[in-house]
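cron nightly-structures :: item 1 of 1
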Amino acid sequence: MADVHSRQAAGIIFVKVDGEQIEANGEFTYRISGTKREYQMNANGKGYWTEAPEQGFIKGAVTNVSETDIETLKTAKGVTVTLETGNGKVVTAKDAIQIDAMEGNTGTGVNPIEFQSDSVEEIR
């Protein structure tokens, strides 16, 4: 019988920016950087595909508690972001820049956050 614990797909996450844990709120999403492919069709009905580099990202929301330095997070650049997922995977974004406006919500106390980099990889 298979070990059900080895099949975990989601759960508690941890997010760190330059080694400092931030207050992650809810779900985070990510995209590994690499090559983006698109299928095209020419006027003769012949198909072909193109490739272009594509940056990766790690994005979600942070809880705006008193210790959360929104200004520092909003202007972050050249940082390493680490996302530890509930299934044991670790995703890193190296030399990342935070691109979201980080608009706050006083009803929920959360601010969206998005880091983009040309070096986002799954290391476990």
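cron nightly-structures :: done
The chain is about 5% helix and 50% strand.
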